[in-house]
Amino acid sequence: MTRIAICAPATPIKRKLAQRVTALAAEGYPQLELSFHEQCFVSEGHFAGSDAIRLAALLECANDPGFDAVWFAKGGYGSNRIARAALAGIDEHAARKSYLGYSDCGTLLGALYRAGIGQPAHAPMPVDLKREGGEAAVRRALDWLAGDPSGKEESVGGEPVVAFNLMTLAMLVGTEFMPPLAGHVVMIEEVAEHLYAVDRMMFHVTQHLHGIAGIRLGEVSKVPENDRPFGADAVEIVQDWCARSGIPYLGRAQIGHSADNRIVPFGLVEPAGAA
Amino acid sequence: MTRIAICAPATPIKRKLAQRVTALAAEGYPQLELSFHEQCFVSEGHFAGSDAIRLAALLECANDPGFDAVWFAKGGYGSNRIARAALAGIDEHAARKSYLGYSDCGTLLGALYRAGIGQPAHAPMPVDLKREGGEAAVRRALDWLAGDPSGKEESVGGEPVVAFNLMTLAMLVGTEFMPPLAGHVVMIEEVAEHLYAVDRMMFHVTQHLHGIAGIRLGEVSKVPENDRPFGADAVEIVQDWCARSGIPYLGRAQIGHSADNRIVPFGLVEPAGAA
Description:
2 copies of one chain form a homodimer.
Chain A: E1 2-7, H1 15-28, E2 32-36, H2 51-63, E3 69-72, H3 83-89, E4 98-101, H4 106-115, E5 119-122, H5 134-145, E6 161-165, H6 166-172, E7 185-191, H7 195-208, E8 214-221, H8 234-245, E9 249-252, E10 264-265
Parallel strand pairs in A: 1-2, 1-3, 3-4, 4-5, 6-7, 7-8, 8-9
Antiparallel strand pairs in A: 5-10
């Protein structure tokens, strides 16, 4: 039996969503046991509870020897606010777990990766069940947790890799939580940002990513309409900043804020089947 | 006679606006001569002309020994894209000039300050004439250019100081253009960003601003409505991140995207009257 603790380091989900994800897992994954922490349903201002409440839940999930993995319920914004205290509070049991999530929760994945704690992975979250085709996304994460690596982003292998939401990465670079990424393939994706903002963030992150193996671009979705066209699309923008900074542009990656979002285990991954 | 060259390193203005600013200056400032570069009116995708066109105009303005100051016409986005080539292309004439602007143009002000070139100053721009009460804002910059320091932000003096739009600063930190700011008072302001984004940027910039004298908060205006209240206002957010990072919070500053935006000459400024 693989036991999975679910908490919400950023923003909350509804109880009904948790029930649907639990039912989906119960149907098809007898080897998995999901445990949604009550904190997932707490709402306080922007967040799924105060920093103290979110931190306590994260530490309970990470430090409990009865769990094998910690699955983040939803992004939004806020996991950076508890990252320092989380790293200070986790114990040796946390080091044996997988950590799954993406978007804002990439801050925690990055911080864990920097600290060498467990196996962080960019992966669909329970909240993705709400998307069109979201059941496939959630199943992809459940498959992964059950030991089936078929949901892995197909370019992964051979080189160490990470995957981040671009805004999350832009706010992570240069901070105490930023992992050293020399030699890594860095996958990025973005949602609901203007193309000029994508351009601005590419300026910023390429200044911070010296020595990486290259950048792969995932989906750039729900771009708001601006008062005028930017004059270049997302691929051209990323290629441009890669060229300006001497970072190899390696092509596309199947990650993003959609049901197609695939799994990217941070670091150097063993060949498929050995996960 | 003080001769002022005006160019647009980011986005364009209309010719009519330039005419109105020229008329305003002609009426009240016989000692000033404004020269709008034709590039101010060029439009190409998001920008006031291609990078090459904007760069060429900036260098013509900065390197022409006939001008005493360079005034940026408008922000928007894009001055970061030409900053490296601008620093490489400016000559000794550029070092004797003042550089005025704010918002996106803060990237250039920061880069010039880092390089020790001229006197960068956060100040109203020609485009501010369009605001309610904008004539006072433009007059404030013209007064400054004419040698009257009365438009200076009132807390300026005694300690070195800089002023930035928060997003511009968030994208500047850690880059090759970021000036060392140890001992500086750092003033920040923001416009049209969600409070969660302000919180996220404060996380980021406070990680990069070790050793500064403190932060002063200007206006945080046109905050979009979110699907739920954030739970803290802009002052509380900035105080929180100052406390978390050990940076003194020094109170408010009268800067921002409004007609009240006052002038902040970068660095250690002489007592009022000596400017």
